[in-house]
Structure formats: C-alpha cells, structure tokens
Write a structure and sequence with these properties.
It is built from 4 helices and 7 strands. It is α+β, with helices and mostly antiparallel strands and 140 residues long. It has one domain. InterPro entries: DUF3293. This is DUF3293 domain-containing protein.
Length: 140
C-alpha cells in the first residue's frame, strides 16, 4: 500500500475516522465492517462513499487558518458537484498528529473517491461500501 513508508500506513490504520450523519455518530476503521457505517451510508442515500480531507496536503502539516480555508474550498467544490456529505474528523490513536477536519462524502465509488483525494493532494482516502470493511486507498 505505502511500500516506501510503513510508518505512514501504520498511522492511517491507527486512526478513527468519525462522522456525524443524521445526528448520529459513526466511527470508521480501516479493515473493519461496522453496521453503523452501513446505516450512515443508507441515511446518506448511498451505497458507498469516502472519507476525505483537504487539510495538510501530501502529509505536510499546515497552519490551522490554511487548513480551514482548504476545507471551505472542498465543501464549496462538493456542493458544486451536487455531492452530499457529512462533517467528520480523523483522529489518530497516537496523539502525535492533530485531529483533521474531514468529510464523509456519499455516493462515490473507489475510482471517484481516488480522483477526489488526488484533486485535494492527499496521500490516501478511506473508501466505504455497504456490507464491506472500510478500505484505505493509497493515492501516491
């Protein structure tokens, strides 16, 4: 997945991807199928989706104001594409990286999820599909 950087892969795997859909919290974990994720997708009117951020492109930690502006642009872009999304955050277990504001975007297959992640210069996105475990899609 990330052959050049096992530490980066381990960091993604040791992260909780939390979203709030229709007033209910859901935690996505890579490699795990969670019934609450299936219900969240159903509430979002989708069979699949992805967890994505515009923060800290290519894994470079940026100041909060720049990340906030990048997230505003991502929301604007998704609305322009008529894609539905829920507010979310990625929070690592180690505490050595700040929680990242993120979005759970509904209705994206793997290819469209990867395209979205590359557009926002991310190293990876998390793809979810009803009835299946969450998958980390490496983009670089």
């Amino acid at each position: 997945m990330f052959p050049a950087c096992r530490r980066l892969q381990a960091a993604y795997l040791a992260t909780d991807y939390r979203a709030r859909v229709a007033g209910r919290g859901v935690v996505i974990r890579i490699g795990v199928r969670v019934a609450a994720v299936d219900r969240a997708l159903a509430r979002g009117g989708a069979r699949a989706g992805c967890f994505v951020t515009a923060c800290n492109p290519q894994g470079r930690l940026l100041p909060h104001p720049r990340n906030r502006r990048a997230m505003a642009r991502l929301r604007w872009y998704l609305r322009g594409c008529r894609l539905r999304f829920a507010e979310a955050e990625g929070r690592g277990h180690g505490g050595d990286w700040p929680a990242e504001p993120s979005l759970l975007v509904f209705g994206l297959d793997r290819a469209r999820a990867a395209t979205l992640g590359r557009r926002w210069r991310q190293n990876a996105v998390v793809h979810v599909r009803r009835g299946q475990p969450a998958v980390l899609l490496a983009l670089r």
